Amino acid sequence: MAENAGTAAGDEFETVIGLECHVELSTVTKMFCGCRNEFGAEPNTNVCPVCLGHPGSLPVPNEKAIEHIVRIGLALGCEIATRSLFHRKNYFYPDMPKNFQISQYDLPVCVGGHLDIEVGGRVRRIGITRVHMEEDTGKTTHAGVTGRIGQAEYALVDYNRAGVPLVEIVSEPDIRSPEEARAYLVELRAILEALGVSDVRMEEGSLRCDANVSVRRTGADELGVKVEIKNLNSIRSLERALGYERDRQIELLRAGGRPVQETRHFDEETGTTHTLRSKEEAFDYRYFPEPDLPPLVLDPAWIEEIRARLPELPAARRERFRRDHGLRPEQAAILGSDARAAEYFERAAALGAPGPAVARWMTQDLAAHLNRTGQGWSELAGRFPPETLVELLRRTEEGELSSTGAKTAFELVVETGRPLGEVIEDRGLRQVSDESRLQSWVEEAIAENPRLVEQFRGGKEGVLNALVGQVMKKSAGSANPQAVSKLLRSRLAEP
């Protein structure tokens, strides 16, 4: 097991974390009505009597949403219940106009299961308690200087999201550090993306995470007092919030205090958590079976049909990239966990480019460009498709481009949108390998650096690189360094 980040303050305490991840499903319509399920529509335009809770309106389950949750459960190794129930979760809040949420309680669709993560070179298995189906709530915007509830002048509610199919994935309290929590969420997001059940865009709220965290003495069997941190909207926020909360609870215990069970809010600006409200218990919601929906009965044959159509999951894809394409584990981890990066890689490899060379470019130069611009692989593929990368690799392998020239060509193609060949010709990036053209630069470098020449002839092999560098500078990077090195050795061997 990787080093327990819960012992960051020493081996005295252990951190215990469980995650509740809410996933909005990518269905055409909402969970119990025919309203469109789409992000970014004008407020309160995708609504109807069912999702607005009008008296007499009746819900009808979305079959595609049920298929999606079965796919998720199968991918996580869960047991799929052939009979489950929808319940009413009762609470009064403006984001649910009917004052209850249709959810599941003691008979969910999926139970058990696990998710394997890798942290610090060690694999950890995190148990899955349940995966259940419910409907999302509306979106409340608090208007004011800070946008927070306490300082809000008024609130606006958009019911477009109310009734959107939502899956909640609840982990066992098996996570032992913020780093493991990050790895869990990254892997879960990759699986959901591979399944095609959600766009998992945390910035749009289609993947949200609540974290339950407690601290106990190392070696203790009894769990500490659990604190819930709500609505963590990025992987970075999850890791930061858990790190702060872990340290806060350890400090409190060392001072002789004791955490209280509560719900806390994470402040992005300060990196701290603060009290939001006391933690509700299940009985506070007065769960009872939804009277307007019969039990959900799934045909075992239909479940097996879904299982047979499951796609390759990220863990299997990473292993295949290592086995079939010769990628290093860290390269496979980056390219195999992102569906769009994996697609880009496989298109390039299918065109005959060596897998390690493609992976090296993708994880270094191309990834650096994406980090710098904030773009994604799909956007990059529009400006610099895999076919162009393959051509760039071929020209470099054949000696037409130096590594420096290749990087320059890549940036120019992305910037201008012009074909690779035109950029190379117009900018004079073609590498010079002809000895007759290299000779003058070599002679100049020898004449201008007598000390380096003397050192090389005296047995200091390393100074040859400095001489090569001088030639590269004179040629503005266009000289073939291998040809230059060979020519310098031949010339310096002369008396």
Tell me about this structure.
This protein is α+β, with helices and mostly antiparallel strands and 495 residues long. The chain folds into three domains: 5-306, no CATH class; 314-426, no CATH class; 435-492, Arc Repressor Mutant, subunit A, CATH 1.10.10. 40% of the residues lie in helices and 20% in strands. It has 16 helices and 17 strands. Strand 14 and strand 15 (272-278) form a beta hairpin. Helix 2 packs antiparallel against helix 3 (235-254) and helix 5 (314-325) crosses helix 6. The longest helix is centred in the middle third of the chain and has 20 residues, at 235-254. The radius of gyration is 29 Å and the shape is elongated. Mean pLDDT is 92; it is low at 1-9.
Index terms:
single chain, alpha+beta, Arc Repressor Mutant, subunit A, elongated, disordered N terminus
**Global structural class:** alpha+beta
**Overall form:** elongated
Largest beta sheet, briefly? 10 strands, mixed
The percentage helix is: 25-40%
Rg (C-alpha, Å): 29 Å
Count of DSSP H/I helices: 16
What is the rounded distance between the termini? 63 Å
- Low-confidence runs (pLDDT<50, min 5 residues)? 1-9
What would the average pLDDT be, to the nearest integer?
92
How large a portion of the residues is in β-strands, by DSSP E?
15-25%
Q: How many strands? A: 17
Quickly count the domains: 3
